[in-house]
Amino acid sequence: MHDVQEVGVLIIGAGLTGIGAATDLNNAGYGDWLMIDSASGPGGMAMTEHLDWEHPNRSGWVRVCGRWCPTPIQKNLGSLVEGSEIARELPLTNSFEADFATSLGEYYVKSFGPTLNKLFFAPFNENLRSGSTDRNVPVADASSVASIKRSPEDTSSFYYPRLGTGALWCDVAEKLPCDKQMYDTTVTKIDLEQQTVQLSTGKIVAFKRCISTMPLSSLIRLTTPTQTYLLRCADKLLSAETALVGFGFQGQLPEILSRKTWIFSADRNVPFHRASIPSSFSPDLAGPGRWSILFETSISQHRQYSLEDLPDAHLAELRQWGIEAEPISIWKRHLKFGYPLPFLGRDSVLEELLTEVESFNILPRGRFGGWRYESSNQDYAFQQGIEAGQFIRCGARESTFWPSRLSGPQYNPL
C-alpha cells in the first residue's frame, strides 16, 4: 500500500522555472503546492550557495582564426583581416529574406553575409550546437551594422551574486515554505489518467495541476499508459550534452584575460564554444590570490569528446594565448542535458507533445521542460515559472514560454 499525498499543484524540478512557479503561488496566497527535485537543493543547473553582490563589467570577446575580436563581432570588425570585406557585405544583406531561410546557415548568410558566416557564425554554432548549421532552423533576430571598432560595444557593469548565480535562486527558494520543498527525490512514474506521480521514496502524489520542468523527453518516457506515437515524437527532440572543465590558478589574472569576462570560440580546431572567467565576475569564486577560467564544450553524436581528455585540450589552447601557468585545481562535470537544439519541424513536434500532455493538466515548461532554448535564459526561465503559476491560478496568458504559439493549454479553474 503506497503512501498517497494530495496537492493542488505539483511542481517537478526546483530549478529556475520551478522556483518561479512556487514563488508565484506562494506570493498569491495559494498554499496547496509541493515542489520536488532529485538534487540535494534548489537552483538546478545554476546551483551554488550564499548571496552577496559584485558589479563586474561586461567584456565579451571572440577567438577566431587565432585572433581576438570584441563582441558583437558584426559591429567590431577592426581586429579582423576580413573586416573591410565584411563591412562591404553587411549593407547588402536582407533581413526579410533571412526570415524565410530553411537552415540556420542560410539565415546567417542572409543576415550577415557569406564572409562573416564562414569566419564566425558557422564554426561557432557548430561548436555550440555540436553539429552542422545546415540541420538547424533560425531562431533569433539579428541586426546588421557595418562599422569597425577595436573594443567591446558593451562594457557596462551589472549585478552578479558574489558566489555565483545559483546563490540568487537559493536565496529565493529560502523565502518559500521549507515544508513544501522536497529534495533528493526522483519521479519514477507518471500516471496521466489518474494524475499521479510515483516517487523514489515510494510515495504517490496525486495532483490537480502539474508544472513539469524535467526534460520533456524524460517526462514522456515516464508516463503511463504508454503512448507509442508520443514516444516517437519525443525521440525526434534533439539536444547536446555539455562538458564543463574549470581551472584554478595561483597568482594574478594574465594580462591577455584582464579585460575579458567571456570568450566565444569560432575555431574548429578547439573543442569549446565558450570560456568564462568566473574570477572576473567575482574574486570570491576563485579565492584570494587566485584566478579561474571555465570552458564549455558541446557533445553529440556528431561531435564526440571525452571529459577526461578535455583538460589537456583546454590547457593547450591557454598555451596558445601565452598562458604558461599550471593549474592548482581542475573541476570537471558532464551534463547529459546541456542545450536543447532547434531543428526543422521542431515546433510541430513540440506542439503535438505539448497539446497531449497539457490535456492531462501538466504544463511542461523551462529550458528542457518546454525544449525552447531561445526563451530559457535564467530570467526567462524564472518568468516562465511565474507565468505558469498565473495561468493555473487565473488563466493569465503566458507570454514568455512561446510568444508566437497560436494555441495553448485550456484553462480549467482549480
In short:
With 414 residues, this protein is an alpha/beta fold.
Describe this structure in words.
This protein is α/β, with parallel strands linked by helices. The chain has helices at 16-27, 83-89, 95-98, 104-112, 114-129, 165-174, 216-222, 228-236, 278-281, 310-320, 346-358, 378-394; strands spanning 4-12, 33-36, 53-54, 60-64, 67-70, 160-161, 181-182, 187-191, 196-199, 204-212, 223-224, 238-250, 262-265, 274-276, 290-299, 329-341, 362-364. Helix 8 (228-236) runs antiparallel to helix 11. The longest helix is centred in the C-terminal third of the chain and has 17 residues, at 378-394. This is Amine oxidase domain-containing protein. Pfam families: NAD_binding_8 (PF13450). InterPro entries: FAD/NAD-bd_sf. It comes from Gomphillus americanus.
Net shape: globular
Q: Proportion of β residues?
A: 15-25%
Percent of residues in helices comes to 25-40%
Mean pLDDT: 87
Number of E-type strands: 17
Distance between the termini: 28 Å
Structurally, how many domains make up the residues?
3
Unreliable spans are: 137-148
